[in-house]
Structure formats: C-alpha cells, structure tokens
Design brief:
The structure holds two protein chains of two kinds.
Chain A (H helix, E strand, L loop, with lengths): L1 H24 L6 E7 L2 H6 L1 H10 L3 E7 L2 H14 L5 E4 L4 H6 L7 H7 L10 H4 L9 E3 L1 E2 L2 E6 H6 L4 H5 L9 H10 L1 E2 L15 E3 L42 H16 L12 H6 L5 E5 L3 H5 L6 E4 L11 E3 L3 E4 L6 H11 L2 H8 L5 E2 L2 H13 L5 H9 L2 E3 L6 H16 L7 H16 L2
Parallel strand pairs in A: 1-2, 1-3, 11-14
Antiparallel strand pairs in A: 3-12, 4-12, 5-13, 6-9, 6-10, 7-8
Helix pairs in contact in A: 3-15, 15-16, 18-19
Chain B lengths: L1 H6 L2 H8 L7 H36 L2 E2 L7 E2 L3 H7 L2 H35 L3 H7 L1 H4 L2 H11 L6 H8 L11 H29 L3 H9 L4 H29 L3 H6 L11 H11 L3 H25 L9
Antiparallel strand pairs in B: 1-2
Chain lengths: 448, 315
C-alpha cells in the first residue's frame, strides 16, 4: 500500500511538473515535445507512469500530459482545431469520434499500423467502435473499457432480509419486472416503515427508494434503461454502426419504458429529475438502497463514507442473458500535428501491454488488453474492491457498444429533449415514433 | 445608449455646429486630428470586437459553416430552414413569454421601489443596498438560486414543506421553470432599473408636487397624474434596456437548466448556443442570431417611437 501511494504521489508530482518542464526544455533543438490530453483525472495520474517509462526509452521525445474536465475538454479541443493548436495526441470518446473524423481532424493510422506491424488483435475490446471507420481508415487505438452494474447498500439489503445472491441473480422482463422488481419492492420503505411489497405501503410518502430512477438517460440510457431494454433482444439502431434510424417505436422498448414509468407510480424509484444530487450522494445519504453506475466509479463507491457498498451485475432478461452497455475510449492523433512520428511512437506505446499494465497498476480503470486487465483486476482486489459485477459481462460476452453515427451532437440534443416529454409524463409512448423519425432525418442529412 | 454615444463622432458634430469660418479651418483640422487620436482606441475596439464580428455573422448566416471546414455559400437556405424549424418557433415563444414576465415584473418592482425610496428615505446606504444584486455576477446568482430552489435539498422547498406544502420543482417542472427564471432575472436587474428610475424621479422639481398638493391631489393621484407622465422618457429607456436584456437571456438558463426539462426553458439564445457550440452548425446559428438582431432593432425602434422617448413633458 505504501509503495503504491508513494508511486501515485510521485506520479502526481511528475504531472504537476510537466508543464514547467515543458516550458524549460521546449527550446532544446534535440527534444520534441508532444502533448497528450485526457478528461479523466484518475487516468491522468495513472498514465504518468507510462510517460516516465516512455521518456526513458525515447529521450528525444518529451510528453506533456494535461487534464481538463469533460465540458472544458471538448470546448478546448474544438477551439484547438480551429485555432491550429489542438493537442498532438488526445483521448477521444465514441460520441465525438464521427464528428472529428468526418471533419478530417484525426490522422489516419492504418499505414503506420501496417508498417510497424502493430497488431490490433491484441485488443480484447473496443474494436467494434474503433476498428475500421466507414471510410476504411483506422483513427484510434482503444485504450480502455467500462460498463455498468448495480451498487447497493449492504446493510439495507440485510435489513430487508435479502442476500447478495438474490441481487446477483436478478431476472427481469417488461411485463412483471421479474425478481428485480421483487427485490426493489422489498428494499423500498415508506415513512411509516412499511416495505414496498407489504400491505399498507404508501407510494406517495417514500423514505427509502429501492432503486435510483430508471427514467431519462438521454439517447442510449447508459445509466438507466440500457441494461434492461436490450435484454429483450431490442437494439437502439437498425445497424451495429451507422444506423439509418433509432428504434424506440419497437414494442419491446415501449413496454420497457412504460414499465419504468410504472415503477415511479408504484413508489419504487424516484421520478424523473426528482433527485438533483448525484447517485453516489443518493446512496450515501440512504435515500435510495440501490443505484446503477459505471466501473469508473468503483473507487468512489468503495470510499463512500458510512455505507458498506456491494455490487451486482445487471439483470438477466427475456433472452436469457444479461446485456450491458460498454464504452471504449481511444488514443488518437490530431491531423494537424507537426510531430506525426513522435505522436505515433507515444500512442502506440500507450497501446502496449507494458504501458497498460503500468497504468492499470493503481486500479482506476479497465485496460483494453486482456493481460493488462488481469493485472488491473488484481490491483483492484488488493484495494479490497470486487470488480466481478463488471468483469462477468466481459467474460460472458454480454457487453454491447453504442452504435456510431454522424450528427451525434444534433441527434443528442434533438432526441434527448423529445424523450424527456415521455419521462416527464407530458407525452405518452406515441412520442417514440416521432423520435425515430427525427433521428432518421438527421442521419439522412449527415449521410455522405 | 452606448451605441448612440459611439455613432455620433465628435469631429463631425463639431464641424456642423460651428459656423463656417475659413480662418478657423487649420485650427479645426488640428482639433480633428486630436479628436480622432482620442477616440481611436474605442473605434478600434468597436471595429475589432463589434463591427467585424457582426458583419462576419451576417455573412456566415448565408453559409453552411461547420467551423472545421471553410464556409460554403448557400444563399437563403438557412432562413428557409428556419421557417420550418418547430424548435426555433417554440424557443421564440418561450423567449417572448420570458420577456413579457420579466419586463412587466421589473417595471413594476423598480418603479414601486424607486417611488417608495424617493418619498420615504434620503439614506444613501439604503439606496445603495438596492443595487447590490446587480453587482453579483449572473453565473453566481444562478448557481446560488439553483441550490436554494433545489427540489430535494433547497432551503426554499424545505421551508415550503415545513409549512405543510408539497415540494415544488422550481427549475425541473415544465410549468414553473420560465416564471422561476424570470423571477431570478428580476431579482438580479430590478436594483439597477430602480436606481435609473430613482434618478428620473430626482429630476422632477418638487414645486410640481407642491402645486399638486395645493390643488388637492392625494399621493396616488399625484403618482398617476404627475410622476408617471414626467417619468416617461426615463421609463422608455428603462423599458428598452429591459426588453433587450431579457431577449438576450442566456447565462442564467445555461447554468440552471440548460434549456430543460424537455426544452421548456429553451430560450432563443440557448438554442443558438447549442446549435453553434454544441452542434458546430455556426451558419444556422448565425442566421438565428441575425433574425434575433432584426427583431430587437424593430422592437427597440417601435418602443422609442411609441413612447416618444426623446421628448419630455417638463416644460
């Protein structure tokens, strides 16, 4: 533990020093300075370990790591594209990928991959998104993956007379909610102490909700319905990537959405935007017994004060399997960089087992290479964090990725706000057909 | 107001005022040079930060411009699309609803406050307190209000529940969100307009009120028959400022609701921002800005004319 802390501390120290060091050595004719940006504060620290190793092996290249919070990050990158000073290399997210690639801002990597014999098969995950783009090029090397699971308050679970096994094996269907609905009904308690599955339960005066809200969630329902609707066999787009329309109108999706609204009426989950605090705060304050969140929050929940948090994988649905939304980020090179070679050296090093193992050693994210993943799982276990609720999806092959589509930000802004009409109760399921039409219109407009 | 000051160049004004005297021409030229020198910084600022961006905006509104590639001339396509864009019209409706609420309340609150201040107190300290909210940044005010009005943890809802009411989703309920935003804006700006109206009140000579009293008029009657008509020029200015300010509402919405829930608070500026900086569709966003610009010009001009803002009833 102490060495780990020391390492983290020194890594952070290095990170802080970099901008200063960058300034002082920038003038040296011998060294080339390249920048690498990330929005993830934890990964910024983790990857400093790779940076040190890389600079030792390549003394002529100086890497500058910078981290900005999500919103600022994309604003700065876009401004950088326009102003001609975007970072040489940066971490890219699937939702921004098509926009940037379509605008010619990402450097195609396939020639360098061929020349250097870089084997893409080393990646256990992420190639559905980051493999060949629609123009046949490869623009990014997938670096990590993440998915969703349930986090619950172990004490509240025990009080309800439920076991970890009950939660780990929950089944679900949109008609009666399966054992999942039984569990959350049991976990819900009203202000008189009556449980959701007992007579006399008052749905209008709930003290502890069994589950955080499943309403909302934007276009892909990442932290809400994405682990439910697809277990009926339903898919968001009509193709794995580059769909021509979304399919909310489908009966399976409609049934799921209506079941979610019924949970609000039954008092088992909060209403849309009823809670304005984050889910970690909801679980921490005891106002909900169970939430759904991503693997990137494993450390956050483990460190939650005064609550013993357990985790469980998503539900087994009508198709007899789980389905969990997974996302992979990738390292990319900006097309406008003046240091193409050095940039490739760096991001191809980021894509090695060696670097991913180094960076994964402090257990803050899941690397995309299987061997490095093993090391990371051990690192999590050393911290006393059980990752099996997430990794079981990886092992069972039940992860799925959100489709790539052009016009992403426009679809996001248009379709999300239409879906809110349903979640606020202002419109009924007839709005879904309109959402599909709106998505199809935007996709058609952006198709080449 | 600012525009007026900038667009009336000093040298030209002086030249027309002076009777043409040939002997003074060299001196005038000397003056002109100095004048140009002195106003050069503000002219430069105006050209760089206002005129050029505005003209560029006009140009971009006739193009398909997605920032990362060069703008492509598409004529009136953006405006044709605008005509059929339901989201644009609904956001315009939301904006007008917001403007009406904000302007009506601001006028009411600021005139009332100013008259009460004027009649009851001469304490500078109390007058200064009125303007305090105006000195707080919009973003800070919006953040603080969004905490206070939070449905779950906000002090306002805690108070409502303590009094036996049900919690209100001030910023998350479709019906509440625009009135709530209007109230925040009124709280923010009423102090400033109060001071303006107050200054207007001070220009009314007390003799008029004395005369009114002698004629047997009460406070209310004097307010309606004397104060309001004499305040008209300043009221017209305050009205124009408030209307323009309200049409341009953005930061408070961006911080508190981002246009939600379900676009209920999607004001025009928010939609323009989302199109430009969220979806990189700068051409379309410029077209919307141009339409807003045209509307504001028409509205301001109409207001100035209808209220005869440049004339005073004081003899």
């Amino acid at each position: 533990m102490t060495t780990k802390k020391l390492l983290a501390a020194s890594a952070f120290g290095v990170l802080v020093m970099i901008p200063i060091a960058g300034c002082s050595t920038g003038g040296d004719s011998g060294t080339e300075t390249i920048s690498w940006w990330t929005w993830d504060d934890k990964q910024a620290v983790s990857y400093a370990a790779c940076e040190t190793a890389f600079e030792d092996a390549n003394p002529a290249i100086d890497v500058e790591i910078k981290q900005y919070v999500w919103d600022d990050y994309w604003a700065k990158i876009t401004a950088g594209f326009v102003g001609g000073n975007a970072p040489d290399t940066f971490m890219n997210h699937p939702s921004y990928y098509p926009e940037f690639a379509d605008q010619g801002q990402l450097l195609p990597l396939e020639d360098r991959i061929d020349e250097s014999g870089f084997d893409l098969d080393r990646y256990a995950i992420g190639l559905t998104t980051w493999g060949e783009y629609k123009d046949g090029s490869v623009y990014g090397l997938p670096k990590d993956w993440s998915t969703m699971a349930f986090f619950y308050d172990q004490d509240l679970l025990a009080e309800a007379g439920l076991t970890a096994e009950d939660v780990a094996t929950m089944t679900w269907n949109p008609e009666d909610g399966g054992t999942f609905e039984d569990v959350i009904a049991r976990l819900t308690v009203d202000t008189n102490g009556v449980r959701g599955d007992e007579a006399g339960f008052d749905a209008d005066s709930v003290a502890v909700y069994g589950m955080s809200t499943l309403t909302g969630g934007g276009i892909n329902g990442q932290d809400t319905w994405a682990q439910f609707a697809p277990t009926t066999g339903w898919e968001l787009g009509d193709a794995e990537n580059w769909p021509t329309t979304f399919q909310y109108e489908d009966d399976d999706y409609v049934a799921t959405a209506e079941w979610i609204r019924s949970l609000v009426a039954k008092g088992y989950t909060p209403d849309f935007e009823e809670f304005t605090t984050g889910i970690a705060e909801q679980l921490g304050s005891g106002s909900v017994a169970m939430v759904q969140s991503g693997s990137w929050n494993l450390n956050t929940f483990a460190a939650l004060d005064g609550v013993n948090v357990g985790s469980a994988p998503s539900v087994v649905g009508p198709i007899g399997e789980r389905r969990a939304l997974s996302g992979s980020n990738a390292d990319v090179i900006w097309a406008g960089t003046e240091h193409e070679d050095a940039a490739w050296e760096w991001i191809s090093y980021l894509g090695t087992e060696e670097c991913q193992t180094l960076a994964g050693a402090d257990g803050t994210f899941f690397p995309s290479i299987a061997e490095a993943m093993t090391a990371t799982t051990e690192a999590f276990a050393e911290q006393g964090i059980d990752t099996s609720a997430f990794t079981v999806q990886f092992e069972d092959g039940t992860l799925y990725e959100s489709p790539l589509f052009s016009g992403g930000t426009e679809v996001q802004s248009t379709v999300s706000s239409m879906s809110e009409l349903f979640w606020t109760g202002e419109r009924d399921s007839d709005v879904f057909a309109e959402m599909d039409e709106a998505s199809a219109a935007i996709f058609a407009e952006h198709a080449d | 107001m600012t525009t007026e000051r900038i667009t009336a160049p000093a040298p030209a004004g002086r030249a027309t005022l002076r009777p043409p005297r040939s002997s003074a021409s060299s001196a005038r030229r000397g003056d002109a040079r100095l004048a140009w020198l002195l106003i050069a910084p503000s002219i430069l600022g105006f050209i760089v930060f206002a005129a050029y961006p505005a003209l560029r905006g006009v140009y971009l509104s006739f193009t398909d411009y997605r920032v990362l590639s060069d703008p492509e001339w598409i004529g009136l396509d953006n405006f044709v699309e605008l005509g059929g864009d339901a989201k644009f019209w609904s956001s315009l409706g939301t904006t007008i609803y917001f403007v009406i609420l904000t302007v009506a309340l601001t006028m009411l609150v600021s005139v009332t406050t100013a008259v009460v201040l004027h009649r009851l107190t001469s304490s500078t300290a109390i007058r200064s307190v009125v303007i305090l909210p105006f000195l707080i940044s919009n973003v800070v005010a919006a953040v603080v209000f969004s905490w206070m009005l939070d449905r779950q943890l906000g002090i306002v809802n805690i108070a409502i529940e303590a009094l036996g009411g049900d919690a209100v989703g001030f910023l998350t309920d479709k019906g509440w969100v625009v009135p709530t935003l209007a109230l925040i804006t009124v709280w923010k700006t009423a102090g400033y307009t109060t001071i303006l109206v107050f200054a207007g009140l001070q220009t009314i000579p007390p003799q008029i009120y004395e005369a009114g009293k002698l004629d047997g008029a009460g406070e209310v009657q004097m307010f309606r028959r004397l104060t309001l008509p004499l305040l008209r020029p300043i009221m017209a200015m305050v009205l124009v400022l408030t209307v323009i300010g309200a049409f341009q509402v953005f930061d408070i919405v961006q911080v508190t609701t981002k246009g939600g829930p379900a676009n209920a608070s999607l004001v025009l500026q928010m939609y323009i921002y989302d199109k430009a900086f969220g979806q990189f569709d700068f051409g379309y966003a410029s077209a919307m800005s141009l339409v807003l610009f045209a509307m504001l010009i028409v509205i301001s001009f109409a207001q100035m004319r209808l209220l005869r803002a440049s004339e005073s009833d004081q003899g």
